[in-house]
Structure formats: C-alpha cells, structure tokens
Design a protein that fits this description.
By secondary structure, this protein is α/β, with parallel strands linked by helices. The chain has eleven helices and 14 strands. Helix 4 links the parallel strand 7 and strand 8.
C-alpha cells in the first residue's frame, strides 16, 4: 500500500514523537509498503495558530500525489487527524493536553479566561468529530485511550510499540547512580526528584540526561540543586548520544521516571530492556501499565519523601534492585511489543 503518516512538529525541536513517526515509516517499508511522513509546522502560541492548523489539515487533499492514490493515512497527533481522507486509521500519541488533562493543572499553557474556554470547547468538539470519522482509532497506550474515552466519548485500542534500537539495550554492573533521561520539563518533574535526593538517608546520586524545553526550568533546577546543596549528587549531563544513553542505562542502579500522567514513556521501556527497576509514581500514567510495585519496580506517591524512601530501598538492597530489573525485562518480553504487530494491526484492521 501507499501510506502517509501525518503529524506535526515544532521546527528545530526533536523528541519522542519524531522518532516514533520515523520508526513507523521504516517499519511500514520493512513490511513491503511505500510510506512517507507528512509533517506540518506546529506552534501553540497564540492559540489561534492551532485553529488555523486544524483548518489547513481539513482543506488539504491527501487522496492523490503524482498520479498515485494514497491507500491509507495514519495520523499521529493533533490536529493531523482533521484530514478528510476516506481511509484514515489514527494511532493517537496524544491530543493537545492543555485543553484536556492539563486544563486544571499548573503545567497547562492556557490562561483561563472566556476566550480560552471557548478555544477549549472548539478543540474538544473538533477532535470528537474528526477522530470519530476515522475508520479505526488506535492509541499509544491505555492511558491515552482512557483520556479519549473520558473527554471525547470515543473508544480506541491501545497499541504498544518498541523504543528505538530496542535490541541494543544491555545490563552491566551498577556504578552507583540512578538514571533519569528525559526532556527537562515541569510535567516530567525533575524538581520533585531533586527534592527527594535531599531527603535520602544515603548518598544517592541521580544522573539527569536531556535538553530543556526552555532555559527557565533548567535554570530553576540548577538553583534548586544549589539551594539544597546536592550539586555533587544531581548530575546534569545535557543532551547525550544514543550510545551514551544506552551505557548510562546499562550501568545504573535503576531508572527514575515520575512524570505527571505520561502518555506512554519510552524511558520505562528502555529501563525494562536494560534489566533495571523503574521508580515511578501513582499518578504517572503510562509507566503504570508496565510497572508493578515490588515486582518490576517501585511505585510510590508523588511526593519527595516517598520518592526518597524508594531510592533508599534500592540503594541499600542491590539484590532486590537486580531481581526487580530482571523481572522488568522478562515482563517486557512477554508483551509482544514489536513493529510487526504494530504494522499488522494498522494495515489490516
């Protein structure tokens, strides 16, 4: 089949969604399909630009290019699914969270006034109509499926996929640190981990890897570390290569990943593939679909004291950490998280 994977991207910003789209296209090609990415530039401010993009996707004709009929459209993100192609199978990474689960959170990017309320209603109603026109809706995780059902009344099928380079993750002897790879972002809650480090009874170290969405939060994190006198225990290594990331995973004592209501979370899967226990929180969303407390990791309340106790537990008990990590990898292998399964589901529904 000739397939287009449609999405949006903030220019000059590359993250999990971009890797996801590229990996999907490669998987489709590996299974004999012709596939390309069509990505339009995305900007959330001012909000009117998102409404414009909804309209643009609706107007674009994706049915034929250079005499080739497009057999299937796979939209991934808001508002790519607003296109009216008759054979759209959505694989929803997430919607515009500021008008959904983050609406009542301090992390949301909208100022609550009458215009914002109307804007929110426009997007929710538009999403419900556009996604409802898709022939089938898959979601990135059960958490994303639950949001879609809650806010839009639409059913979807969770469809897991492997992280990039899934077969290259290994486990080596632990070198005395926990690993937290992620964009520096309020929703990822690196600040919570810094507060937890200061409350541990052991000299716990955490390596933070990833670039910042904006310099303000990164500066705030470094100020918190200085104020708490933990700069020697909170190591920020910035953006790292894939090889460096795999090495950090392999030599860590465990992985810390406590985001707020994460959609899916490659970090969880990468940690499991590295045979490492995952420390996450009861409100972290996607990771909870894979991590069970005291079986494949530690699930704790989202406060600094509870996180500190979780880190201390694994820091003091290497045998437990190793046991949970081995269980995590075994559980991953039992889930059939493969691109073959993904391609079969998306193209044969």
């Amino acid at each position: 089949m000739d397939i287009l994977v449609t999405t949006v991207q903030v220019p000059f910003i590359r993250g999990g969604a971009e890797i996801h789209a590229e990996s999907l296209v490669q998987a489709l090609r590996n299974h004999g399909h012709s596939a390309e990415i069509v990505a339009l530039p995305f900007e959330a401010h001012p909000p009117q630009r998102m409404l414009d993009l909804m309209f643009i996707f609706r107007l674009l004709d994706f049915s034929t290019f250079s005499g080739r009929n497009i057999d299937l459209i796979i939209p991934l993100k808001f508002p790519a699914y607003f296109n009216s192609h008759p054979n759209q199978v959505a694989w929803l990474l997430h919607q515009h969270r500021d008008v959904y689960d983050l609406w009542e959170q301090k992390f949301g990017g909208l100022v609550h006034n009458s215009d914002a309320v109307q804007f929110r209603e426009t997007i929710i109603n538009g999403d419900t109509k556009a996604l409802g026109e898709c022939r089938q809706i898959f979601s990135n995780s059960q958490n994303v499926a639950n949001r879609l059902k809650k806010f839009n009344g639409l059913d979807s099928i969770p469809l897991y996929h492997p992280p990039k380079n899934a077969d290259t993750f290994t486990c080596e002897e632990a070198q005395g640190y926990f690993f937290f790879p992620s964009r520096l972002n309020l929703v990822k809650r690196q600040h919570l981990v810094l507060e937890a480090i200061s409350k541990t009874r052991n000299p716990v170290k955490v390596v933070f890897a990833g670039s910042s969405d904006n310099g303000l939060y990164e500066n705030e994190l470094k100020q918190i570390a200085e104020k708490l006198d933990i700069t020697h225990r909170a190591i920020f290594v910035g953006q790292i290569s894939e090889a460096e990331k795999i090495k950090y995973y392999a030599e860590s004592m465990g992985v810390i990943y406590p985001p707020l209501d994460e959609d899916y979370g490659y970090v969880t899967l990468e940690g499991m593939l590295s045979s490492k226990p995952i420390i996450t929180c009861t409100d972290s969303g996607g990771p909870l679909e894979f991590i069970t407390d005291q079986e494949t990791g530690v699930v704790t309340k989202p406060d600094s004291f509870a996180l500190a106790r979780a880190m201390d537990q694994l820091w003091e008990n290497h045998r437990l950490a190793s046991h949970l990590g081995k269980n995590a990898r075994k559980h991953y292998q039992e889930l059939d998280i493969t691109w073959t399964n993904v391609v079969n589901k998306l193209t044969n529904c």
